[in-house]
Write a structure and sequence with these properties.
Layout: E1 3-7, H1 15-23, E2 26-32, H2 35-41, E3 48-51, H3 58-64, E4 69-72, H4 80-90, E5 95-99, H5 106-118, E6 124-129, E7 132-144, E8 150-154, E9 161-165, E10 183-187, E11 192-207, H6 208-213
């Protein structure tokens, strides 16, 4: 399965995390506009820089000009992260890890989380920020888990009903509408979590360190 990394212009991830992901099969590195500034800082050569290029520094553009593909797209009806995801989809990538998606602006952070949901039918997107890993799920879902690990689940409206097997605080055909109810800091009770998600999607947030240590990413 083709997997890629998309590096956005938010808070820079740990340099070692990018190396770990590349070693784990995320072979393509796409920088969404100013994400190239982070790649330059880390002495990484991306495969592609894409976006309207209003955030990448001039010296970074000059440095990468003959080292990778730079695709300037001026349209303003989608974000640089969306442009990167559309490129990945066009090249038949099935999974993407989005780094640098959050930072010091809440509007950018909310926008990027919304993009994960928007593209969930076309590509599986994982968001990693500091200690946390976020993914979107729908339908019947089975996850390998570690007994005792923390798992948080968030829905979006009243229509999505969730039933769980393998959580300390089980969910029984209930909705988790944002701003009304959530399943924060639930606990896995076995090595497998089964979810039945009807009529919608959920965000699941897990501990990055636990997942790395147990080969779950």
């Amino acid at each position: 399965m083709k997997k890629c990394i998309i590096l956005a212009n938010g808070e820079a991830p740990d340099r070692k995390l990018i190396s770990y992901l590349k070693d784990s099969g995320y072979s393509l590195l796409i920088c969404a506009d100013g994400g190239a500034n982070t790649a330059y800082k880390y002495k990484l050569i991306p495969d592609l820089i894409i976006g309207d290029l209003d955030s990448i520094r001039k010296d970074v553009t000059e440095y990468f000009n003959d080292k990778c593909v730079i695709n300037k797209i001026n349209r303003q009806n989608d974000t640089d992260v969306e442009k990167a995801l559309k490129y990945a989809i066009s090249k038949n990538y099935k999974e993407a890890v989005l780094l640098g998606a959050t930072g010091d602006r809440l509007d950018h952070s909310f926008c990027n989380l919304g993009i994960v949901l928007k593209f969930s039918n076309r590509i599986s997107v994982t968001v990693i920020h500091k200690k946390s890993l976020l993914r979107t799920f729908k339908g019947n879902t089975v996850l390998n888990t570690i007994p005792g690990e923390t798992i948080s689940i968030y829905g979006f409206d009243e229509s999505a009903k969730i039933t769980s097997v393998g959580l300390k605080f089980p969910l029984k055909n209930i909705a988790l509408p944002f701003g009304k109810r959530e399943s924060t800091s639930n606990i896995a009770t076995s090595d497998m979590l089964k979810l039945k998600i009807l009529n919608g999607s959920v965000f699941i947030v897990r501990d990055l360190k636990v997942m790395k240590e147990n080969g779950l990413i």
